Amino acid sequence: MDEKQLARLAQDGSQAAFAELVAKYQSKVFSMAMSFIRNREAADDAAQEVFLKAYLALPKFHLKSEFGTWLYRIAVNHVKDVLRKRGRAREVSLEDVREIPVADENAMEKAEAERETEARKSLVQRLVQGLPEKYRDILTLRDIRGLPYEEIAQVLRLSPGTVDSRLHRARKMLKNRLAPYLGREGGSHEM
Amino acid sequence: MRCKKAEKWISLSLDGRLNGRSCGLLEEHLRGCPSCRKAEAGYRSLQALLRPGKEDSPLPRFWERLEPRLKEEQKLVPLVLWERWALHAIPAFVALVALAAGLLFLTPQTPEMSQSESLLIENANPFSETRGLFEEKRPEARSMMLIFASLDDKPAARRQLP
Predict the structure, then answer these.
(1) Which CATH number fits domain A94-185: 2.40.40.10, 1.10.10.10, 3.40.50.10900, 3.40.50.720?
(2) pLDDT (average), residues B10-26
(3) Any chain B CB within 8 A of the CB of A23?
(4) Whole-number Å distance between alpha carbons of A123 and B45
(5) Domain segments of chain A as ranges
């Protein structure tokens, strides 16, 4: 049974159909929440809230768009609300970055490289959280979650041209913000 | 090609959104521009760092935790709908009452005219009907005319005082 049929059945009150949709999308919604919130419990709670909101809003879903796109829109809006309430959308301070563990010079080379990559990933993700909301959202959807352009345009209600230009600005801003930290570590710009 | 444009195209090429001719132009520029080559490598590394290794799974028993909440919410739906309806209906009702009251009090009321006033407006003599009564010499006939006139007359509307 395809998604639209399941959505139609769920609209008619079938909890089994909704359960199937939840099973299909729970990891995607959770991962998206996790990309923004970066805390497993909070992301899980947000994912539950997203499905609750979707369930209550089912009568308003007109089956014109894909169920997944509609659900992502609810998810992104809910996660943004959560972040606003938690006041997490702040600039990343230098202190935050200094807390990241650096590679142990005495450890084995492979483990060192892995730790360094993890540290850099963590740094990059923290910097993403510190970007202005519109840039953070588009970068998270495209470069972290890997959503296609068309879906991003629908989820954020933007034109494809705006997606292009905003994504470019977001990447450039992130690269510029990352540059001083990489310089401090003594690494090259090529990361 | 200017480096600013090249940087924008690098971003597009990361997503495979650059057409063949533009790809060629960008490659040509990158061959001769070390700073843009460095930028391109930086963007690619950044994208690799952003992409998560695998999809995360939520905490265990996701549906089992969600299902009772859905049932709970479903019970509240009529109440929520009523609240939403009431929130819209109460102001609408108040507005309707205010409109009706406004129409009632603000529209100018035309007082009913007496028979004499109606005759005057029609440019007719208000005493024409009573003239015959006054001109009648015989008291019996005058009494009879008065009786019949009172039977025919509708109750005269009183003019409203200002």
Answers:
(1) 1.10.10.10
(2) 90
(3) yes
(4) 13
(5) 3-86, 94-185
Complex ipTM tops 0.90: no
Position B113 pLDDT exceeds 80: no
pTM of the model: 0.65
Higher pLDDT, A166 or A125: A166
Residues of chain B with C-beta less than 8 angstroms from the C-beta of A178? 46
Q: Where are the alpha helices (DSSP H) in B33-124?
A: 34-50, 62-106, 115-121
Give B96 to chain A, closest Cα distance, Å. Answer: 29
CB B111 within 8 A of CB B159: yes
Tens of pLDDT, residue by residue over A23-64, are 999 999 999 999 888 889 999 999 999 999 999 999 888 888
CA distance B18 to chain A (A): 11
Residue of B nearest to A26 (CA): B58
Q: Enumerate residues 6+ apart whose C-beta is below 8 A from B13.
A: B23, B26
Q: Spell out the CATH class of A3-86.
A: mainly alpha
Indicate yes or no: CB of A171 within 8 angstroms of CB of B65: no
A191 touches chain B (CB under 8 A): yes
